[in-house]
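From the methods appendix. Each design record in this collection lists the tokenized structure first, followed by the designed amino acid sequence. Records were kept in a plain field format so they could be parsed without special tools. The example shown here is representative of the layout used throughout.

RECORD:
FOLD TOKENS (71 positions):
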């Protein structure tokens, strides 16, 4: 499952890009490729447990940020 807060954009207020770039809607900024790997759950990573932005947002908004195990 991909992080619901990750989008891909080809532009921002000032620039247009040739390729889509990863954008985090929680922090409202473009993110580095390594962060996008976490958001896309690549390489045995899980955005729900490995991304501090997701975990903090989940706890702030009352969402359940765990992976389904016992809390």
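DESIGN:
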């Amino acid at each position: 499952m991909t992080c619901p807060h990750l989008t891909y954009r080809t532009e921002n207020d000032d620039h247009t890009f040739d390729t889509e770039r990863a954008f985090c809607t929680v922090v409202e900024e473009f993110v580095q490729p390594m962060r996008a790997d976490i958001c896309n759950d690549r390489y045995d990573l899980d955005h729900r447990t490995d991304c501090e932005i997701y975990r903090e947002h989940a706890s702030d908004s009352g969402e359940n940020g765990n992976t389904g195990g016992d809390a």
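APPENDIX NOTE: Confidence is low (pLDDT under 50) at residues 65-71.
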